[in-house]
Amino acid sequence: MLNIQELNKTYSNGIKALQNISLTIESGIFGLLGPNGAGKSTLMRTLATLQDPDSGLVTLDGIDIFQDPQKARGWLGYLPQDFGVYPNVSAEELLDLLAVFKGFVKPRQRREMVAHQLQLVNLYEKRKQKLGTFSGGMRQRFGIAQALLGEPKLVIVDEPMAGLDPSERIRFQNLLAEISEDRVLILSTHIVEDVASLCPQMAILNQGKIVTQGCPLQLMEQLHGKVWMKVMSPTEAGTINEEWTIITARMLQGKRYVRILSDAAPDEGFQGVEPELNDVYFSALSGKQNTLEAVEI
Ligand SMILES: Nc1ncnc2c1ncn2[C@@H]1O[C@H](COP(=O)(O)OP(=O)(O)OP(=O)(O)O)[C@@H](O)[C@H]1O
């Protein structure tokens, strides 16, 4: 179990990237959602012991990870947002080298470990291929293979789905689900659908603060009976009532789909709809937004 207590980080330019972050994370996939600049990468780098917080405590199975970062790195795997590879080296060669850096010095043990990880991420057949020839999805699967070297108890993956085509994305989601058994896997992302389909636990980070946390199904359930939708023509947009708490207003095939949050049925043709995780996300981010422009997506 990962326990994060009152983590704070303010950069030298005054930006408060993390403000009193406290989370308890069980094994399985934990989704960390937030818009650009929310502080997700700062939190991921801090948990990966690559940057120090100003204050706060993080324990993994009761052990303080900041006390001996070198040792902590032996228990954690990290796939950073900007994971670069050497283009002229094969998958097998680079993974072997990264295993050396992780402290695995026995060649035979390393060979077995490298083969095992490449099989797990379905790249064994491509092991001799140069990484520069890999597709985006293959590169990300290779990134998972390197993160899993040494069977870490904590795996951190920062925005891994960006740029993946739909089939690679599904393949990558399945891989994350497979490897998250018996370990904590934190998936940082701004893609709500990935959290909805993968994560039994989640938190939403905005401007350095946790604004919501819990189980996605329960968070959606809390909005039950409160989400209302109306399809409007673009010209009707002017009739948006200033009193409404708008969750989203999005254009789809020439129509404007407006979803609002309201305890009681609003008049003017709104229909009650099942809450989606998007509703949880945008309500949490917007607080009491009620202007169409502010939430238009
Ligand atoms: N080294 C740094 N020095 C100063 N400010 C920084 C630094 N790194 C990040 N920030 C700022 O801290 C805030 C949080 O950034 P961070 O990269 O953690 O957010 P994020 O949620 O990962 O965003 P993104 O999805 O765009 O990567 C942003 O306002 C960013 O500009």
Automatic annotation (TrEMBL):
Domain ABC transporter as annotated: residue spans: 2-232
Keywords: ATP-binding, Nucleotide-binding, Transport
Presence of keyword Transport: yes
Listed name of the protein: ABC transporter
UniProt cross-references to Gene3D superfamilies, sorted A to Z: P-loop containing nucleotide triphosphate hydrolases (3.40.50.300)
Any one GO molecular function term: ATP hydrolysis activity
Family: Belongs to the ABC transporter superfamily.
One Pfam family hit: ABC_tran
InterPro entries reported for this sequence: AAA+_ATPase (IPR003593), ABC_transporter-like_ATP-bd (IPR003439), ABC_transporter-like_CS (IPR017871), P-loop_NTPase (IPR027417)
SUPFAM superfamilies: P-loop containing nucleoside triphosphate hydrolases
